[in-house]
Design a protein that fits this description.
The complex is a heterodimer of chains A (473) and B (196).
Chain A (H helix, E strand, L loop, with lengths): L5 H7 L2 E4 L5 E4 L2 E4 L5 H10 L9 E3 L17 H17 L2 E2 L10 H8 L7 E4 L13 E4 L2 H10 L1 E4 L3 E8 L8 H12 L7 E6 L1 H4 L3 H9 L8 E3 L4 H7 L8 H11 L12 E6 L6 E3 L7 E3 L12 H14 L14 E4 L1 H4 L2 H11 L9 E4 L4 H9 L2 H7 L3 E2 L20 E4 L14 E4 L2 H10 L5 H11 L1
Helix pairs in contact in A: 2-5, 6-8, 13-15, 13-16
Chain B lengths: L7 E9 L6 H4 L19 H4 L21 E4 L11 H9 L3 E4 L4 H10 L2 E4 L2 H13 L4 E5 L4 E4 L4 E4 L4 H9 L3 H6 L2 H9 L2
Parallel strand pairs in B: 1-2, 2-3, 3-4
Antiparallel strand pairs in B: 1-5, 5-6, 6-7
The structure holds iron/sulfur cluster.
Iron/sulfur cluster binds next to helix 12 of chain A.
Subunit structure (chain A): Heterodimer of LeuC and LeuD.
Pfam family, one (chain A): Aconitase
Cofactor (chain A): [4Fe-4S] cluster
Chain lengths: 473, 196
């Protein structure tokens, strides 16, 4: 029998037709939509006189553009309000489930999908958002699409896609203290660059990956796009099944048993071939931070910014432009740089585990005076749990402000903007120029590193504080 | 949405050699608030093109009258980041029909082909040659021929062929989009769905 990768198995099961020297007609099980990339798709659909073919396969939530305070009131920003109202109108007209502001399952689209149990192994999932790759943590093929394709999914539940090449990244071993899945992915991207995954779909494997919780796996798959890959996935296992069991929309009873039996077949066959493979050791990974304007520009927190030695002229020009924007110089150490803001949130690290990590670390301490600290839960459910578990109180006592769910400062479409020239250490996924507001300077790191920065007010290796703490105790 | 057919394009180039230009630079998130596809060209490269008061920055290439044309000559790894098709709308609406680079981000390239902007991938050497040519003579022209799948620097006659699958090529030549094709498969799609 032909040996197949996990990716092949799911992909091949969703091809309705292959066009010679062209793309595949690819069936989509679940389609997530939000207020920013859907309105034009709905508009064009109507111009064409077409309806949504399978409305029950689409789920909507407003997240990108929503305020994170006073969500129960009318949205002040007129354009944002119009986008959210359009989404409501469109969902109503086409019979699409909407998790609106203030409802129990409102939140960032990539946080609520898994929470509700919509995201399940073996599925194909798309959304007009590049971080759709998050859902790959469940052993699904999930990737971002453009608005034209959103319209295609509405009209036909299919898109036209050429099958990407396959890459496997294996991380074996045990992670050190203070090192998290965010550090794994920032490390990998720093190794293979922000474009090293272009044209590929990645499978993450190895003992270090298998040992991770579902939330930590989502963080890794989420950032697959930051190395240019269309998406990344992890074979489902007991951790996956345990996470899904009992979730609102997960199968129940006999259907559950059948589903699990199928899900257990979803793994790469021994000897199946990948177009490209990378291997890493968990022991080489340490807390990471970015210093430039793409996620590939990352180093270990205790290291310095790389020098330009040996760089090609064209590369050097862009490199210096990037460092100039950040206000950094080649060769400078990262540790000790003053920071103005910390942001904990986004579909990368805005889940309950992330809030727990931060709360545990800052408990009984106070944030530094120079730091403004924002925490934005990824969903209402995260917010609710954080309250029930007493995390909110701990965080507020430490000087953090907890806002309401949404994308918030991850892309700064709403009012949550980092001011021009200021430095923010963020748990989000992009450090592009102006990503967190015009002129803002973003450094990406794990929730633990962000917590440490919040306390000291400068770039800090969280392990230094863990050690100090251990000594105090 | 249908778009203008693409056949043979002869044009000058606008050079932007910066590498890793992400979609947040092509169109910043705060300009994604529209519910219609209108006016995106005005905000193409917004924060590189205008200062915070809205005045054009003279050193940015789009503000430099020396350069013009329907071809954007871009640096390596162009269009990385977000899936926002708005980035390509901005490029198209500004007046570009073709982007040339030695390396494109995936989703961006896909989006280009879906709305009628031709992404042409050239070798790094040819990209360097094109940058050198336009620097030496801003009126240097290239010819992009989708039929022959070639890009030619007219002053030297140097030419390279580029990849595009025959399905997308037909679409670009006819100004078609995928939905027309997919809608014809309705029965097959419904049968497939029923089996899931
Ligand atoms: S949190 Fe950030 S990355 Fe995630 S969906 Fe929202 S804007 Fe995109």
């Amino acid at each position: 029998m032909e040996k197949k990768t996990l990716f092949d198995k799911i992909w091949d099961a969703h091809v309705i037709k292959s066009i010679p020297d062209g793309p595949d007609v690819f069936f989509i099980d679940k389609h997530f939509i939000h207020e920013v990339t859907s309105p034009v798709a709905f508009l064009n659909l109507e111009k064409r006189g077409t309806k949504v073919m399978f409305p029950e396969r689409t789920v909507a939530t407003p997240d990108h553009n929503v305020p994170t305070i006073d969500q129960d009131k009318t949205i002040k920003d007129q354009l944002s309000r119009m986008q959210v109202e359009k989404l409501r109108e469109n969902c109503k007209r086409h019979g699409i489930d909407l998790h609106d502001l203030g409802t129990d399952h409102h939140g960032i689209v990539h946080v609520i999908g898994p929470e509700l149990g919509i995201t399940q192994p073996g599925m194909t999932i798309v959304c007009g958002d590049s971080h759709t790759s998050t859902h790959g943590a469940f052993g699904t093929i999930a990737f971002g699409i453009g608005t034209s394709e959103v319209e295609m999914v509405f009209a036909t539940q299919c898109i036209m896609q050429a099958k990407p090449k396959k890459m496997r990244i294996t991380v074996d071993g045990t992670l050190g203290r203070g090192v998290s899945s965010k550090d794994i992915i920032l490390y990998i991207i720093s190794q293979i660059s922000a474009s090293g995954g272009t044209g590929y779909f990645i499978e993450y494997a190895g003992s270090a990956i298998r040992s991770l919780s579902m939330e930590a796996r989502m963080t890794i798959c989420n950032m697959s796009i930051e190395m240019g890959a269309r998406g990344g996935l992890i074979a489902p296992d007991e951790t996956t099944f345990n996470y899904l069991e009992g979730k609102d929309l997960a199968p129940k009873g006999e259907a559950w048993d059948q589903a699990v039996a199928y899900w257990k077949t979803l793994k790469t066959d021994e000897g199946a071939e990948f177009d490209l493979e990378y291997h890493y050791n968990a022991v080489d990974i340490e807390p990471m931070i970015t210093y430039g304007t793409n996620p590939g520009m990352g180093v270990k927190v205790r290291e310095s910014i790389p020098t330009t030695e040996g760089m090609k002229e064209s590369v050097k020009k862009s490199y210096i432009k990037s460092l100039d924007y950040m206000g950094f110089k080649p060769g400078e150490p990262m540790k000790g740089k003053k920071i103005d803001y910390v942001f904990v949130g986004s579909c990368t690290n805005g889940r309950i585990e992330d809030l727990r990590t931060v709360a545990e670390f800052v408990k009984g301490k106070k944030k530094a005076d120079n730091i403004t600290a924002w925490i934005v839960p990824g969903s209402r459910e995260v917010e609710k749990k954080a309250m029930e578990e007493g995390l909110v109180q701990i965080l507020e006592e430490a000087g953090f402000k907890l806002r309401q769910p949404g994308c918030s400062a991850c892309l700064a479409m709403n009012d949550d903007k980092i001011p021009s020239g200021k430095y923010a250490v963020s748990t989000s996924n992009r450090n592009f120029e102006g990503r967190q507001g015009p002129g803002s300077r973003t450094l990406l790191a794990s929730p633990l590193t962000v917590a440490a920065v919040a306390i000291t007010g400068e770039i800090t290796d969280p392990r230094d504080l863990i050690e100090e703490l251990a000594l105090e105790k | 949405m249908a778009y203008d057919k693409f056949d043979v394009l002869t044009s000058r180039m606008v050079p932007l050699s910066t590498e890793n230009v992400d979609t947040d630079q092509i169109i910043p998130a705060r300009f994604l608030k529209a519910t219609e596809r209108k006016g995106f060209g005005d905000n193409l490269f917004r924060d590189w093109r205008y200062d915070s008061e809205g005045n054009p920055k003279p050193d940015f290439v789009l503000n430099d009258p020396t350069y013009e044309g329907k071809i954007l000559l871009a640096g390596r790894n162009f269009g990385s980041g977000s899936s926002r098709e708005h980035a390509v709308w901005a490029i198209y609406d500004y007046g570009f029909r073709c982007v040339v680079s030695s390396f494109f981000a995936d989703i961006f390239k896909n989006n280009c082909l879906n709305i009628g902007v031709l992404p042409v991938t050239v070798t790094p050497e040819f990209a360097d040659e094109l940058f050198a040519a336009v620097e030496a003579d801003p009126s240097a022209e290239v010819e992009v021929d989708i039929n022959k799948q070639t890009i030619t620097l007219l002053s030297t006659g140097r030419s390279e062929s580029f990849d595009i699958n025959s399905y997308k090529k037909q679409n670009m030549k006819n100004g078609f989009d995928d939905i027309d094709y997919l809608l014809n498969l309705k029965t097959e799609i419904q049968a497939f769905e029923a089996g899931r």
